[in-house]
Design a protein that fits this description.
mainly alpha, 484 residues, two-stranded antiparallel ribbon
């Protein structure tokens, strides 16, 4: 079943490849084909979720492809990777729908890029080999580099795409060196072999720093964060959704699977350092968010602060903190794309400016937009009855159990996120209608249907969080208490 999840988007790309023509009918046919392929993958992932056994500590749906001497592709999922796979298959059709009308050239290659990225992202979460994890982890950069550079929003898109590529690739060189050292000493990069091997604390420290530097650039943590706001601001809407919804989750998964799973002693040793960096990142990015005049950059900086809370939860070394961090990652994976859809899609498509000062009083002509924007803003602030609140509360509770001072400093995000979120909503929605804006229509049916599943996920799992935690608990408990 996992191999089918990987192959269906590739087959969809092969179907799209021979299609030609720039006529509206041809382009519509391409978009419908890509959307159907992504929906089939989403339905298949729901079947996978339904058959998942939450009581097992073993990898499930394991498939091995060892026919080639140089390629040992082993696939499997556990409770930790399950929800990241579901998030990937949910976000991909939303990406296709979000840019349904506003890509004016190269639609076929735009759609193929997103289908390939879906395969690569799923592969990161299901491969059971460290070298293959690295290969797929880095391969995602290539289509995203092309998406930002070709279909970006302004003339500075080339600079943004190179910042995205070079920052993240430079950090990953250290991860590659660490993987080579592991292979030289252990003789394998298979997850099962790594979990049974023993490394000295000094050896773990060196390898841990190499992996952490790579993940810190991609999270991003201060001071390696400069590529993210630029990439978000210049990327097309679908690219921003994928960056916020899925790219940042690769780092969460890497922290859990590699640093916490395979190097627990070094993780415990360096936890105070990581917690300090995460708190600095949280406060700095929150203050920087308040200063933004571009609303896509504002949402991008807010993503940095939310991911800093995720890092605090992960490195609390508690079940509560790690489960909360995973829940917050999933919540951020749906709410941040919803924010980008509203500001970078609905508003930018109508008024073609991202400068906040040009906007005011949108409730006059866009009341439905104002209601949806209010709900999304409230969820982004982590109000009760949302999954964001569950994840943030548990992440902060986990870190507070271990280090109360860090917990108090991390809790400042509650006030800081409310400051920039309420400012943005108040500026856009209330007051007299701006003299710089022309008359416009409310959100369309397509835009509303893009938003609806994202909000439903945040609300349903916010009211019923045990649906997620029942699948996570066994895997997270085994991660903490059963590692050698």
């Amino acid at each position: 079943m996992l191999s089918a999840l990987l192959l269906i988007p590739i087959l969809g790309s092969l179907v799209l490849l021979p299609m030609s023509g720039e006529s509206p009918a041809s382009v519509t046919r391409m978009k419908k084909t890509a959307l159907v392929v992504s929906m089939i993958n989403f339905i298949l992932s729901l079947v996978l979720w339904g058959e998942f056994d939450s009581s097992s500590v073993q990898y499930q749906f394991v498939q091995e492809f060892n026919s080639l001497s140089f390629c040992h592709l082993n696939l499997g999922i556990d409770g930790i990777s399950l929800y990241f796979v579901l998030l990937t298959t949910l976000i991909t059709p939303i990406c296709i729908l979000s840019n349904w009308d506003n890509i004016k050239f190269g639609m076929k290659y735009f759609l193929i890029a997103f289908l390939l990225m879906e395969t690569l992202l799923i592969a990161v979460f299901v491969v059971l080999d460290l070298m293959l994890f690295y290969i797929f982890f880095e391969s995602v950069l290539i289509p995203m580099f092309l998406v930002v550079g070709i279909w970006g929003g302004s003339v500075t898109r080339i600079r943004a795409s190179f910042l995205l590529f070079l920052y993240t690739l430079a950090g990953s060189l250290f991860m590659l060196l660490a993987i080579m050292v592991i292979y030289y000493n252990i003789g394998s990069t298979d997850f099962a072999a790594l979990s049974l091997s023993e490394m000295t604390l000094d050896g773990q420290k060196i390898l841990w720093l190499a992996f952490f530097l790579s993940f810190a650039v991609k999270t991003p943590l201060f001071p390696f964060h400069m590529w993210l706001p630029r990439a978000h601001a210049e990327a097309p809407l679908a690219g921003s959704i994928l960056l916020a919804g899925l790219f940042l989750k690769l780092r969460t998964y890497g922290y859990i699977r590699i640093l916490i799973g395979f190097m627990p002693d070094a993780t415990s040793y360096f936890s105070p350092l990581v917690q300090t960096i995460a708190v600095v990142t949280l406060i700095y990015s929150s203050l920087a968010t308040m200063r933004q005049v571009d609303f896509k950059a504002l949402v991008a900086y807010s993503s940095i602060s939310h991911m800093a809370i995720v890092v605090l939860g992960l490195f609390s070394n508690t079940i509560v903190g790690i489960e909360g961090a995973i829940a917050l990652s999933i919540a951020h994976g749906v709410i941040s794309p919803a924010m980008f859809t509203l500001v970078g899609g609905v508003l930018y498509d109508r008024f073609h400016t991202r400068v906040i000062r040009y906007y005011r009083g949108l409730t006059v002509y866009m009341p439905v937009f104002a209601i949806v924007f209010f709900l999304t803003t409230a969820f982004n602030m982590a109000v009760p009855l949302s999954l964001n609140w569950i994840g943030e509360a548990l992440s902060l509770a986990g870190i507070f159990q271990k280090t109360p001072i860090i917990g108090v400093l991390g809790a400042s995000s509650i006030v800081l996120s409310a400051c920039y979120s309420i400012f943005l909503f108040n500026r856009l929605a209330f007051g007299a209608y701006s003299q710089y804006l022309s008359f416009t229509n409310d959100i369309t049916r397509r835009e509303f249907m893009v938003m609806l599943p994202l909000l439903l996920v945040a609300v349903i799992f916010g009211i019923l969080p045990n649906v997620i935690f029942s699948d996570l608990h066994v895997a997270v408990s085994d991660l903490i208490y059963a590692t050698p």
